[in-house]
Amino acid sequence: MYSVFLQNIVYLQYFRCFCGGYYQLNVKKLVIGINGISFHNSTSNDFFRLALDDNEAQLRFRGTTDIPGVLLSGIVNEGGTILPRQIWGAKRHNERDILWISAGVYDIFHSVGHTNYNVQITPIGANRACFYSNITASSFRVTILNENTPINTDFGFVIFGNN
User: Fold this and answer.
1) pTM for this structure?
2) What span, in angstroms and rounded, lies between the C-alpha atoms of 106 and 133?
């Protein structure tokens, strides 16, 4: 720890924290103020902030995370395409997003790297049933039905799981 400034905030620079002896957190800047706390890594612009002010986001971070939750989300057009702004998440596949297999059958690709995840599928349209199958560490299959007949339709998907 190299420097501390005391006024309305406490500012610690080049601080190393050992958590349980297993993980090391290199914090370049730690700021504690009357409205919250933040940790910054100035070399990569990553940060974590917990705010206590009701006018700000309560939790904000930038950079890679290791938090279970939404890994990937998107909206698929009935023809089997995804527009760039219709897909987001940390586990997007580097090379492809989706492959249309046949009427109502789509393979969704991701970079989750394991099978410990769940998928929620929401068809956009009335009288549609859907399910997912063929779960792998890098893809899953979506099938959309209309009265037991596969049918092309727009749908949304969300992958939840561990990083």
Assistant:
1) 0.63
2) 10
